[in-house]
Amino acid sequence: MTAFMDYPEPSNGSLKHFKKDDFETDRIKVAEGTFGQVYQVKVKLWREKCALKVLDTSACPEMYKRAMEAASNLAKVKFKYIVCIYGVCNEAPAIVMEYMNNGSLNNLLYNVNLMWPKKFQMIHEVSMGMNFLHSLRPPILHLDLKTTNILLDDHLHVKISDFGLIHWEEGTDRKLLIEHLMARGNISYIPPENLGQSCSPPGPFYDVYSFGIVIWEILTQQKPYAGCSMTAVLLQVSHGKRPSVEIMPEPKPPECDQMVGIMQECWSQEPQKRPPFSDTVRKTEALSEIMKLPGPRQNSVVNEHREEPQCPPLPDYNISLPLPDLLSDEQSGKEAVLSLLFKKDFRSFRSSVKREHVSTRFKGSKSLLHYTVASGDQTSVEHVLRLGADVNCTMAKGYTPLIVAALNRLHDIMSLLLDHGADPAQGDEDQWTAIHFAAQNGDDRAVRLLLNKGMLADAREKSGWMPLHLACQNGHESVVRLLLTRMSIKTIEEKEAAQGRTALHLAAIYGHINITKLLLSQGVQLDATDAALSTPLHLSAHAGYNRIVRLLVMGGAEVDALDRRGSTPLHMAALKGHTGICRQLLAQGADPDAKTNQGWTPLHLAAIKRHETTVVELNSLGASVNAPGDKGWTPLHLACHQSEDQLVAKLLAAQADPDVREDGERWTPLHMACASLSFPSVLHLISHRAQVNAVSARKATPLHVAAQHGAAAIVKALLLNGADATSRDASGFTPADVAQDHGKWEIVQLLENRPA
């Protein structure tokens, strides 16, 4: 016997099961590794991007089982610095996870120059995520912590991924295990005690060692043991050698030495000497907070969005590097002169350098003038210029000596170069000029110097970003104040080209309240739209910046402005669960039941994202709990579909209609609760007098749905509350027929032996 229809698969408790049809057909491969691929997909119901991690079970047959165990354990665990797991897709097989727009930390470290405060912040956030995993009972060990498994959100905040996939048991073959770890590319992160002949099961200190290597990578932005074979790494680690701490980029803040101390404790040769994450997280927090304080350090952060322009990596002119790493064999004759710069023997350098030296090109097409500027010795720079050096010469990526000086905050040398004809408007290969770098770094002295030398405040790089955009994004108030004095209101309101955002958009999305006030004092447009038609109010509401939302609303921003998806700022706040912002927007007249292009109200979005407090608050402030959305689904349909029984209870208490029908199959919330195997939701609905014999478009009752999935407890509850076991669906099947057709024999027996 073949049933007329199949009902949706169960959600298996808290772990949601997806089908391939739940995703839109367009998918984008974003990563590929030894054990599978990661795709960017969009869930049809949620209209939101997710990451689909498709596992290659042939490479490791146990991988999928372990991934399912990890996914099941953490499906309902939420933490700011842990990647959220939404569910699994057995058809792929794959795990469905939160999508991280900025990819992995590994990619960022070797493509973007990070400032010290951002480095410290990232280290602290990794320690927060690991401390959370280790504090669970039982603790979850990562055993694969590395920069490729540390992902970054829209604002470059850290989230840890791929935890719980590696298992180590007594009797594990050491050679096979090392080969397995090598295949995953993490030989550099294995502690020495697990490289010996006898490998005992690792404890939390395994992850602490890996964290020490991660700290080194973040601080230096280099690969550990670069160029070494696996054998060389094994030997070095076993004998207590670690990556060099002598290559920290200069200038470095005093706090760097303290962070290096934490790092060295973490990678101690003896496991018992490594500090637990509960201790490390407090130390890294203190250092991170210190670095946030204003002062004469490099206190800006890198641009925090992949689609926005990012500061190119610092040129490879680190003068602490040994000469063989910088010079080719044919240039060895110039080593003597250049080595004097590295030794900081500037007097000998000036007496030795000759006119022919200034035209020499070293690795990366760097000139002697580039190296001399990077050395920081003004007298030597002046001497090389007198010998005829080209003041506007460029290295491989287009960096001029003036840009090198700006990156290193060498203001006197900048002035010297400008006096000798350096062109302040000359940019690198991406058209970033010295003033762009200075603005991003918060160097108001350099910005003022360049402006006084004729540099235009509205200079644009390749993507249309002005220095004002960079200063607003990175929160450099002093630079913003300076630039505003040199710009007209029309210029201030100009947009960068990549996403069409104004300076106000950038200040709003990154939460810089004082800069927002400054821009508003200039009379900028409050409701300017970016490429997605988002206003600054949309962006600040989405990001959760209450004070900026209040400032914009009080200034007259349109509270019901629509972006390209038809979303209002209230939709954005509800989507992220920012209850206070929702309350604030509604108090200023925002429409509580405004619908997106897809038909979702703010309350729908809060329900989809399981923000219970926001749902209750929206309803209490006038949002309709029964508004139909896409396909006629109400918030109660969504809550039942997602097995969110507590949300179901709160919606019913708010007078949600338990018998409302969606547009497609004409299912009630009770049908969906049965399909999702959510027994508590079924009980809540029954207690609110939901019709147990409601029929769908195909005449299926909730009992038909429960019978298909073998939900004995739900079947019993329905029968006890008057469900008709003799009802027939459109194919003429009773619930017992459906159960038999799907092999649910317990249900067949239960239905056939029920009391008359």
Walkthrough of the structure:
The chain is mostly helical and 756 residues long. Among the domains are: 16-98, 2-Layer Sandwich (Phosphorylase Kinase, domain 1), CATH 3.30.200; 105-292, Transferase(Phosphotransferase) domain 1 (Transferase(Phosphotransferase), domain 1, Orthogonal Bundle), CATH 1.10.510; 684-752, Ankyrin repeat-containing domain (Serine Threonine Protein Phosphatase 5, Tetratricopeptide repeat), CATH 1.25.40.20. 42% of the residues lie in helices and 5% in strands. The protein has 35 helices and 8 strands. A 6-stranded mixed beta sheet has the order 1-5-6-4-3-2, with helices on one face. A two-stranded antiparallel sheet has the order 7-8. Helix 30 (669-675) packs parallel to helix 32. The two termini are 26 Å apart.
Topology of helices and strands:
Blueprint: E1 16-17, E2 28-33, E3 36-43, E4 48-55, H1 61-74, E5 85-89, E6 94-98, H2 105-109, H3 116-135, E7 150-152, E8 158-160, H4 174-183, H5 204-220, H6 230-238, H7 255-266, H8 277-292, H9 335-342, H10 346-352, H11 368-375, H12 378-386, H13 401-407, H14 411-419, H15 434-441, H16 444-452, H17 467-474, H18 477-484, H19 489-492, H20 503-509, H21 513-521, H22 536-543, H23 546-554, H24 569-576, H25 579-587, H26 602-608, H27 612-620, H28 635-641, H29 645-653, H30 669-675, H31 679-687, H32 702-709, H33 712-720, H34 735-741, H35 745-752
Parallel strand pairs: 1-5
Antiparallel strand pairs: 2-3, 3-4, 4-6, 5-6, 7-8
Secondary structural class: mainly alpha
| Strand line-up across the major sheet | 1-5-6-4-3-2
Number of helices: 35
Beta-strand residue percentage:
5-15%
Termini separation comes to 26 Å
What CATH architecture of the domain at 105-292 do you see?
Orthogonal Bundle
The CATH H-level homologous superfamily of the domain at 105-292? Transferase(Phosphotransferase) domain 1
CATH level-3 fold name of the domain at 105-292: Transferase(Phosphotransferase), domain 1
Instruction: Give the overall average pLDDT.
Output: 84
Radius of gyration: 31 Å
Low-confidence stretches: 1-13, 167-172, 294-333
Question: What is the approximate shape?
Answer: globular
- The overall strand count is 8
- Classify the helix fraction into a percent range: 40-55%
Which CATH first-tier class of the domain at 105-292 would you pick? Mainly Alpha
Major sheet, described briefly?
A: 6 strands, mixed
